[in-house]
User: Fold this.
Amino acid sequence: MDRLPVLVIGSGISGLTTALTLAEAGQPVVIAAKTPWSESNSGLAQGGVAAALSPGDHPRLHAEDTLRVTRGLADPTRVDILTSQAASAVQPFIQSRVLALGPDGAPKFSQEAGHQRARIVHARDGLTGRALMGHLIRKAQSYSSIHWLDGKVVGLAAENHQAEGAYYRSPAGDLDYLAATAVVLASGGMAGLYATSSNPDSTSGDGLILAYLAGATLADLEFVQFHPTVLATKGPGRRLLLTEALRGLGAHLLNAAGERILKGHPDQELAPRDVVAQAVFSQQPVYLSMQHLPSDDVYRRFSGLVQQLSECGWDLARDHIPVTAGAHFSMGGVVTDSVGRTDVARLFAVGEVAMVGVHGANRLASNSLLEGLVYGKRAAQAILTDHARLTPRKPLARPAMTVRPEYWTVPSRLPSLLDQHLGVIRDQDGLQRLEQALQGMQACHATLLIQMMVSSAMARQESRGAHMRRDYPEASAQFAGHFYHQQDHGRIFRPISQPSAISPLPIP
Ligand code: SIN
Assistant:
């Protein structure tokens, strides 16, 4: 490699989109992924991609739905970018028939919670993340300028607020260093830290910590989205997700007496995700039922999930399937501008690890793969533009730094404590208990991240979207804004009325 590569940390949909856009422009790229792509959150995603493509739909309507559901904390400009660039982002997958098409050759659209109309496109078997990822991985493998790094990134080198490269641990356990012309975090969120989660354990907030320790700003950490319907199983490990598209087709959520738990809500089972998750959580046990729907439709539309459920002993079309709410998505993350730049020069963030401002307090269903596609590409384009202005750099000598491997180990007590005290419904007492428990644990990266989450969750004395406080059940105008965390300044609140409320500029 003559030129220094761009290092992309993470191989989900956003990382691959960034890497491919760079590679197509001739920029060498190194992708570092700590798990195989099929185990990444994108690879596991069943949800589709939202795009205003159906007759009568419009990006403006998609933006309206996004802004309504995100409870006042999404940035309208960033949302407009997302919804207006959605069509061009999904078009390649429609053309290559990765997404399901009807007999007329047009995409098939389904309905999901919070959307006023059917605008979600899926893969044929419903396992959309796997289909998109398979397509992108095959493409990435065809580029000789994309290299795969075998190892886990354990630290960023950021001198004078400028990213220079990263330290990584090889499979043999050696600490190595890679110099890079820019570093892109695409490592996903932190929902895998919870005991009850749709995410794999590997989704443990690594990118948030790497960015924070390098001097970048984090925000909105208290907003963790809980998916209302993960399979209610016991024991450790990821819970199987029962996609919202099931409710889009008409699935019911029933209590133990067989009554629909959301019959009082105007949108019933298609109420926004925060509302449904809170209902499912507080009315346990809850069951998802499709018994009243034609079973052929269910088997055909969701063949991937039907297979996965049958391996656990459930028949999707005939059984009442026990479901619970599980941690699913981090709305907060590393604060970026509209092209993924953070406040550390040459450090970018894309996808779930980033807080670009499109998810607010409650992400709209099927906006996350879309975010990866749209903002992953924009970041690559910005890197290519920035490069034209940057003077070529020689690889730096490996900076001295020790990276302590034990800091990356998640304390075994933490996941269930998160479920208990930083879960679907929080209160001051529980948050204080969690804070005390953290003080009693060996300090590590996960405890540092959770401390920041607890601090924001305590300070946000209101209920808004996914942040539900038992002791402050209403939203309050006083908290219409974002809590930021920065190494040099601690926790800071900025109201949305302040210009550039979502901005990567250093906080004064
Ligand atoms: C789902 O299919 O229910 C998940 C989709 C999403 O998280 O957007």
User: Anything to note?
Assistant: The longest strand covers residues 320-330.
